[in-house]
Amino acid sequence: MKQRITIENLNELSTEQKERLRKWWMGSNPGISDLYVVKVKFDDVISYEGPFVNSGHRDFNEDYYKGEALPLLSIGQMIEIVQGNLKNGLVIEYTNDKVSNYLHWEIPRFNLPDNRLNNVITNPELCDSLWLAIITVL
Question: pTM of the full predicted structure?
Answer without folding.
Answer: 0.72
